[in-house]
Amino acid sequence: MSSIAFLHPDLGIGGAERLIVDLALALKDCGHSLVIFTSHHDRNHCFEETNNGQIPVLTAGDWIPRSTFGLFMAFWAYIRMIYLTIYLILNYRFDLIICDQVPSGVPILKAFKHKCLFYCHFPDQLLSKHDSFLKKIYRFPIDYFEEWAIGFSDMILVNSYFTDEVFHKTFKSLANVSTKVLYPVVNFAESAQEKIPGTLNAKFKNVATIFLSINRYEKKKNIALAIEALKALYDKFDYVEEKDRSRIHLIIAGGYDLQNIENLEYAEELNQLAKKLRIKSHVTFMKNLTGEQKQFLLQNCTAVIYTPENEHFGIVPLEAMYMNRPVIAANCGGPRETIINNETGFLCEPNSADSFAEAMHQFIKDKTLSNQMGSRGHHHVVEKFNYQKFKNELNKIVNDLINQNE
Questions:
Q1: Distance (Å, whole) CA 234 – CA 353
Q2: Can you give the residue ranges of the Glycosyl transferase family domain (predicted)?
Q3: How far apart are CA 301 and CA 370, in angstroms?
């Protein structure tokens, strides 16, 4: 089979990293040899497959700064990726290079006759604020370079039809470039649905309804909405007595990197919000779940609340539905392609605490609704987001690209 390398900026535990790991595992299952090249790989903050030798990882360029006093992070990300690309070219040769997130190495790869596939999670320029004159000046060459560099790719994959539409609207010069949607999938082990033994913390002893939010501690994930929705649920539906409130609880769990200032600041902001709304005793914060802890929470929650607005795809709703849990999410972006409204969950008005609260109330009124929707969600994921189908499609894409004449 073929040799394949992945070029990924920082190998943490986010959704992009989960997809890269799943791509690598799928290609490995198909018999390809592969290595992930990255600028940073913290073995205490990564997916287990990259830590136990299942997927080889090589690191280069971590000595290059990530920022200058917390600024110019995009610039340094591009520099780090250029260094990583040159390191790969000078020391190795692969049949195919798969890049994502930062495209600055793509033109260099093509200059040295490497075949390159770019996986676009979302245009980076749309993830950055352009809220000041100086920021616009700083971002202009980076945004232009992003579009120019991606154009050198032999093939471009995107994670959803929503992202595909945004891609072509954003990158005007690439309007005629063909892209292909390859949905991320859930790659749980066959035994994933087996009940994990254990008990919830004593504080949940009398809790009848548990809502679960799983996201990195980042502002763009809009986790504050889950807290505001819980408060709206109490107020809107007269859950005013403490004995009633104690029957409903919100667990907020997600990736938390001590080296990431935003993670630290946003976690504290969420904590203060819960205090301000006087529902702190009904909200539990958890950080950096293990795979087993995550599975346990999914098995024991009533529903998952997924709060990002215009999320590019969103793997959490798939994970929840696969584990027989319904999902409450914003009616925009990727979740519109994964959640069937009123069947596998509820699609709510984006950024509306009242709309999310109304959906949450449905599970309190009807205790059987969680299992009913959860069962339909599992069948939906197995049928539409099948790992075997994903693996076969990816393998065909890769083989066709490798065998394609220049």
A1: 11
A2: 209-378
A3: 9
Strand pairing class (33-40; 248-254): unpaired
Sheet strands (E) in 237-367: 248-254, 283-287, 303-306, 327-330, 345-348
The model's pLDDT over 155-173, given as tens digits with 9 standing for 90+, comes to: 999 999 999 999 999 999 9
Contacts of residue 39, Cβ cutoff 8 Å, sequence gap at least 6: 9, 10, 59, 60, 61, 62, 64, 80, 81, 83, 84
Cβ contacts of 338 within 8 Å, gap of 6 or more: 313, 314, 317, 318, 321, 385
Return the bridge partners of 250, or none.
Answer: 211, 283
* CATH class in words for 3-185+386-403: alpha beta
Distance CA 303, CA 69 (A): 41
Q: Please, where are the H alpha helices in 161-220? A: 161-170
Q: Cβ of 68: how many Cβ atoms within 10 Å? A: 10
Residues near 194 by Cβ (< 8 Å), separated by ≥ 6? none
Reduced to 3 DSSP states, what percent helix, strand and coil does the chain have, rounded to the nearest 5? 45, 15, 35
Q: Indicate if the alpha-carbon torsion angle 167, 169, 170, 171 is positive or negative.
A: positive
Q: Which CATH class is domain 202-384?
A: alpha beta
The DSSP call for residue 212 is E
Q: How far apart are CA 127 and CA 125, in angstroms?
A: 5
Listed by start position, the domains of the chain span 3-185+386-403, 202-384
Per-residue pLDDT reduced to its tens digit, 266-301: 989 999 999 999 999 889 999 888 878 888 899 889
Q: What is the DSSP letter of 277?
A: T
CA 31 – CA 33 distance, rounded (Å):
7
The pair phi, psi for residue 397, each rounded to 5°, is: -60, -45
**Alpha-carbon span 106 to 81, nearest angstrom:** 10
Say whether 202-384 and 3-185+386-403 share the same fold.
yes
Helix (H) or strand (E) holding 394, with range, is: helix 387-403
Prediction pTM value = 0.83
